[in-house]
UniProtKB/TrEMBL annotation:
Residue ranges of domain EF-hand in the record: 31-66, 79-114
Protein name per its UniProtKB record: EF-hand domain-containing protein
Organism in which the protein naturally occurs: Streptomyces filamentosus (Streptomyces roseosporus)
Coiled coil feature spans: none
Signal peptide as annotated in the record: none
InterPro entries documented for this protein: EF-hand-dom_pair (IPR011992), EF_Hand_1_Ca_BS (IPR018247), EF_hand_dom (IPR002048)
Pfam families documented for this protein: EF-hand_7
A Gene Ontology molecular function term of the record: calcium ion binding
Domain of life: Bacteria
Disordered: region residues: 1-28
């Protein structure tokens, strides 16, 4: 069974019930703040949409002071490698050794009060 759908341009499309709809992945109820998104993007050195432990450590070491000066992260949030590793560990809720934007945001929004 097909259902016709209209859009603002006046063009009509067809949604077939035989083709699966791919919904966005659930965010476990957490909406990513603009500040968390800016920090995530700055730390995502390879731009693949996830963060590894190495990316977090290296990016905060190299970019932390500049990010703090730009207001992306609080100055007190810029620590050494151990603090960066602890941030990663706290955020990696499922233990897969990569951080999704949702995992990252849930921790930094709470930790930095965003």
């Amino acid at each position: 069974m097909d259902q016709s759908l209209g859009n603002p341009d006046g063009v009509r499309g067809v949604l077939s019930r035989t083709e699966p709809y791919e919904a966005p992945l659930p965010t476990r109820g957490h909406v990513m703040s603009d500040k968390a998104r800016a920090l995530f993007d700055a730390l995502d050195l390879d731009h693949d949409g996830t963060l590894t432990r190495t990316e977090v450590i290296v990016a905060l070491r190299e970019k932390g002071p500049t990010l703090a000066a730009r207001g992306v992260i609080p100055f007190w949030g810029v620590g050494g490698d151990d603090a960066s590793a602890a941030l990663f560990d706290a955020a990696d809720q499922n233990g897969d050794r990569v951080l999704s934007p949702e995992e990252f945001a849930a921790v930094v929004d709470r930790r930095f009060g965003w």
